[in-house]
Fold each of these.
Amino acid sequence: MKTFKYIWRNIRRNPIRSLLTILSVGFSLALMTVLYGFLASQETWKNGAAQANRIVVMNIQGFSGALPISAVDDVRATQSVAAAVPFAWFGGSYQDEQMPFAQFATDPNSVFDVWPEYSIPPGELTAFKTNRQGCVLDRRIAARRGWKVGDRVQLKGAIYPFDLDLEISGIFDSPKNTDSLYFHWNYLNEGLKQQSYPNIDNAGTIFARISSSDSIPTVIKSIDDKFGSSDTPTRSQTEAAFAQMFVDMLGNVQVLIRNIGLAVVFSLSLVTANSMAMAIRERVTEIAVLKAIGFPRSRVLFMVLGEACTISMLGGFLGVGMGCLFLQGMNRLLPQFFPFTVMEMLGPWISYGLIAAALLGLISGIVPAIRAAQMSVIDGLRRIA
Amino acid sequence: MSNSNAGETVVVVREVCKEFRRDQLTIPVLSGINLQLSEGDYLALMGPSGSGKTTLLNLIAGLDRPTAGDVIVCGQNLGQSSEGELAKWRSRHVGFIFQMYNLIPVLTAYENVELPLTLTSLSRRQRDDHVKAALEVVGLQDRMDHYPRQLSGGQEQRVAIARAIVTDPTLLVADEPTGDLDAKSAGEILELLHRLNTEFRKTIVMVTHDPNAAARARRILHLEKGLLVSEVVSSRAKESVQ
């Protein structure tokens, strides 16, 4: 009979208590997995952006400021800029959905030059360029909604007083889920003109691809110097810095989430320790018998710790598994908030979660294990009566 | 089971005193006990509650150390051994039989008997042979897959005896082994102990309140207030001499 068999039988001795302990560890670690997964997704975005030779040009006032559409050509004219496009957030709703997916008004002639890692059939790209009401979208959106080329998509303006009536010209593939739809900037601008909207000819932000990463600092300085004395001074930054800006917006939230995670682990260790202490208290006589027949302290210690670790590891696998399933589900349902797959989001976090579970077992089991190992055989046997 | 020659000294208890401390109080439990047991001896310890019977049994079994004096069992001076050394020594030399059987409820009869063997370097097959042999001695080979809750009190005690003898120890210590059994089961257990003593030459030290149980032993020692007050050679011993 192996030691683990005995440990497993002891776990099954009081199945309800063991199950409740496993579930409490599991649900808490599932919560932690989701929270840390969300944080990690921000890091993933930032790290992914760091590999692209792209910069983002925006008004120095940030998203509240505008950039004239003429600035796009000025950026294009800058040395080492391979391609540049306006990139204006539309933020329209689809039927009853407030934020169905991201929608950007851009230049169909250059958008796939700025993002060369996206692929689209040439015929569909030509159709997109020639159809003023044409749009292209990420294959994942099309698959999720059952859309195909030629279908029409109506988007109701939420920021702008203009509704879009779009025809799907093409479907593109991208290495990661962009959850995005691109349409003609001109179509939006002309529509806004018809509505006498005051803020027309606005490029929103400008995305530009630079021919080599070495040139990026020079290009950024050159663009910002060029617009420095204009009505719309710019703040240019790498795409990675742009992503970092969003991550930084979560600054205190990240600290809060991490601290909540630590508090959850600490409180859980108390719950599990109490459960283990109860289990050992009920088994004082048995432990005394084991020690009487010659079980050394180290083996008793190992058995109790093994039981605590097995329970918390079962909870860990359950929790991390549930967390991953939840994140994967969110990736499918709300890709605009969770644009990456579980492995992209979590990666090492999965092992961190399991290590946290193992540590939880050790912390919660160490005191009952030491008490069991040091327990007097005589005192333990005396409880028989 | 070994069946070596009789006469070899197994237990020597020399001028043993034992005191317990409770807060500031020192409570003497045993005073100046002297005792010697040879291989194949069967000793019954009797006396009123609090007379020190179980304390003496615990000292002989290496579960406790004397305050003064020497307890030498199977050549080992137990008072001078560390906790770890005592645990290892007990696993080799002592088999325990308790009043309440103390089987592990989550293990089958087979697994309970196998438990002491997991401390040895025996292979799985060797352990299996030992366990089956021990269960055969106690007549429970057909119940090896039963859990303790599926056995009667007498059967549980027989499994406990199998667990005690599976490592082939020199010494068996029994603390009121029939105290929780009906007369019939108690008789069967006493008969089994008798067989282990006579057939397998096991040295047995048994604490009991039951004069009938004590009568099965070769020697009966009476303790009172921590002192040995009398030693009786039992009727069984007399019969065997005649």
Amino acid sequence: MLAARAITRRFGRTLALDGVDFEAHAGEIHALLGENGAGKTTLMNVIAGATRPNSGEVTLDGAALNAGSPQEALKAGIAAVHQSPMLFERMSWEENLALGGFGRRGRYDLRAVAAEAAALASQLGLKLPPPRAILEQRSVSERVRLELLRALSFEPLVLILDEPTSVLAPSELAGFLELLERLRAEGRIVVWITHKLAEARAAADRITVLRQGRVVARAISPETPERELAQLMLGELAPPDAAAIPKGGSGQSVLLLDNLLLIEDGRSIIDGLTLELSGGEITGLAGVDGNGQTELVELLARVRTPSGGSIRLSARTEAAEIAVIPQDRDHDGLVLDMTLWENLLLEPGLRERFTNGSWLDVAKARALGADVIARYKIRAASPDALAAELSGGNRQRLEVARAMSLKPKVIIAHNICRGLDLAATADVHRALVDFAAAGGAVLLISSDLDELLALCGRLFVISRGKIRETEPAERTPERLGLLMAGAWS
Amino acid sequence: MLWPLIKSAAALALAIALISIVLVALGVSPVAVFAALAEGAFGSWYAFTDTVVKATPLVFTGLAIAVAFSAALWNIGADGQLLVGAILSGAIGPFLGGWPRPIAITIVLVAGALGGAIWGGLAGWLRARRDVNEVISTIMLNFVAVQTLSWCVHGPLMEATRAYPASTPIAESAHLGFYFPPSRLNLGIAIGIILAIGCHLLLFRTSFGFELRAMGRNRRAAAFFGLPIASLTVRVMALSGALAGLAGSVQVASITHRLYEKLSPGWGYEAIAVALVARLNPIGIVAAAFLFGALDNGSQAMQRAVGVSPVLVQVIEGMVILILLAFDTPIWSRLGGRLGGAKGPAHAPALSPDA
């Protein structure tokens, strides 16, 4: 049995965990449910030895673990898969896995590592990157899969997973759940951290709910109704209603992608993609990460040039009226060590607006920052707060606010709700819906089917750089999952 | 802006305290040592002005480092850029005899800035075009600059008598004259302070400065939003080199009036320390350069008065840097959070300039 008792952890003035008790038994999948900032990840870090608690202790089968030592935790059999992978970005995946339990201890034999990893991966139905691929160039989901493999290579007694499904493809989900069930059957403990109610209810044996650093429900049944769980998780805040979503577009075309091609190193990454965006609707593009979405976004952001085809704006649209929200907010979207108002200025259209000759109008930019904080409910002390000081949800609100401030005709949004809690997701969705309702065109590129099904008028699927529009009859998670896996391309 | 200055001051105090322990162990009175140091640096009008003169090249080179480091371009070549700037100034200087003073001085300074800009810009171009790590290229270019200077003063630029390895003196019209002889106080420091203010405005108030800092803190995001990374790299390195080149040119125009080998005692390297202590803040660099100039200037007097080697000063300088780097991020920011001061995020890099 894994037990954490009276864990308290402070970060500066914030109390991240406040006397948390947590228990998980051998042979169970235990969901740890909570909003962003509820303390789930901190609790995981305490259990895995990455964070030393201010007080309290963790025991595994009665033996106390040395707090704050990841090596000890690992030796005791506790392995963790982090939401943002803890990997060596500049090394190949084989080298990364060599640090795991693959291969013979103390021997550096990449071929053995790769072979064992491949065997385990094929058992799990996970796809590995090409040999010797450097992680830097791989997608987040591939990196998380590698971390999962590395964790499993230790044959852990306790496996802690931090929001694993946020980066898994629907087609990988079944294999993943099977894996969890096998771990359970072997008498291991799986702690699954999530903020998705449905997942917790579907897969877990028991659920513990955290809210603002406290346990509000301990080891309750997964039969607990969704509404009740949401209430536990969010407190007074009720889950947001489905907003009035504009389904039919105005039909007025604003942006046409015509037979777009992108070829790199002889591989075609975008393969004859044709798509017309019109005002007044949210067009969805579903796909498993790594099928050309990132490159498509970069083409639309004009940081890449297509190898063929064209991106055409309608007569009344200007290039500066396309706002792009990239998927990786910490790496692509924001400069964390700059202030909130400086991050607004990253967008060239806004920078132009706040530049006189070559001088920045700092006062005006700061005023926009203050305005944006109020309008988009960004929790920040002032426009001078560093982006790094904002929580994930507030960073995303900042990105959305920046895109909206541009007063664009088109918004390209890529996986913008990944890792966000319900409240932030609802805010971001509402902003997109309002934008479309006011006549804007949105291209929502996502791997989250719930989000796409809820918001989009037209829905396309991308696989290996080709896209295909879905029929209304195909818009079920199962059918879409198959299409995303490339059943048609 | 105040908080980082307090941190730097605290690091200095700690370094002095640690040195004092060593001095006591050696049987020397720390009070006498530091009194002699202060006396040598500030004890008289002449001492004070010489501290300013010693600080001047560090202001320019410190600014050069701050500009490049703010863009995450690790320019280790300020020394070489300084020398190339000096060479161009020293080469053109002798021919300015008939020119009016302001024009002659301007030509000498522009030549110096140009020389530095070429040397720095070359490293920037190599980085932008060929992805050559600028740390390596700038260090290598330092060696090239040293040897080029040596060749110049033994060869094409050697003075007329061919007796000394030094160049022909620059024309008097190009001298940055001394205001209060025998003190060597000259216009150089004023130019440095104006440039520091200029760099501050450039970094924090212009769109070029914004792009430079954005690139320095997140190259990927900068590229995503269409910043011209390659051209910025070249321009920033050229600007950094120009500032370093000016250090050489001011030195030639005001103090040496000619070129000779070992023109720089390593100002381009000491500048890295200056810039770090100032946390890359241009205004802070003036203060840090003044501090380093004072230590340098006082060290001679200290040796005469109490017989402690001037190397002690370098030990102090080194310790200040180490203390800053070692204690900066984790401890200081936590302390800051608890004291309710500036909130430092745990991951903030030690080298972030504070506006």
